[in-house]
């Protein structure tokens, strides 16, 4: 092999190993159990909101970086009475949301400091894509939670 080919091969090997390591790290950070049926997802969540996503930015809390999605909550089905204006999604397990005033149903967890956290494992769906059964479930799921 020529010197150039050896150099290219070594560079590719290093990039491959770096990528495998990064992928393994992300997989450890984000491990989703089997997808829950919508009723179970709604019942098990601390927060259930219908909201427009109006912006996002990367934030660093010191312990981990995350995406802060600014939201305009239309309806809080479950969660804090004072309203919700942002949800946080950790890098490595990020829930990817469109930020052009797209409307979603979002489930998440409420942390002790009052912030709402979501991951790609949560039940998050475009509002316009909810089935009739899912919309009906939202109206009366609390009566069906055990």
Automatic annotation (TrEMBL):
Species this chain originates from: Austrofundulus limnaeus
Name this polypeptide is given: Metalloproteinase inhibitor 2
Annotated GO MF terms: metal ion binding; metalloendopeptidase inhibitor activity; protease binding
InterPro entries (UniProt xref): Netrin_domain, TIMP, TIMP-like_OB-fold
Amino-acid positions noted as binding Zn(2+) in the UniProt annotation, renumbered to this chain: 30
Family: Belongs to the protease inhibitor I35 (TIMP) family.
Coiled-coil region(s): none
Assigned keywords, A-Z: Disulfide bond, Metal-binding, Metalloenzyme inhibitor, Metalloprotease inhibitor, Protease inhibitor, Secreted, Signal, Zinc
UniProt cross-references to Pfam families, sorted A to Z: TIMP
Domain NTR: residue ranges: 30-145
GO annotations of cellular component type: extracellular matrix; extracellular space
Domain of life: Eukaryota
Xref: SUPFAM superfamilies: TIMP-like
Signal peptide span: 1-26
Site annotation Involved in metalloproteinase-binding: residues: 44, 65
Disulfide partners: 30-93, 32-121, 43-145
Subcellular location: Secreted
GO terms classed as biological process: negative regulation of membrane protein ectodomain proteolysis; response to cytokine; response to hormone
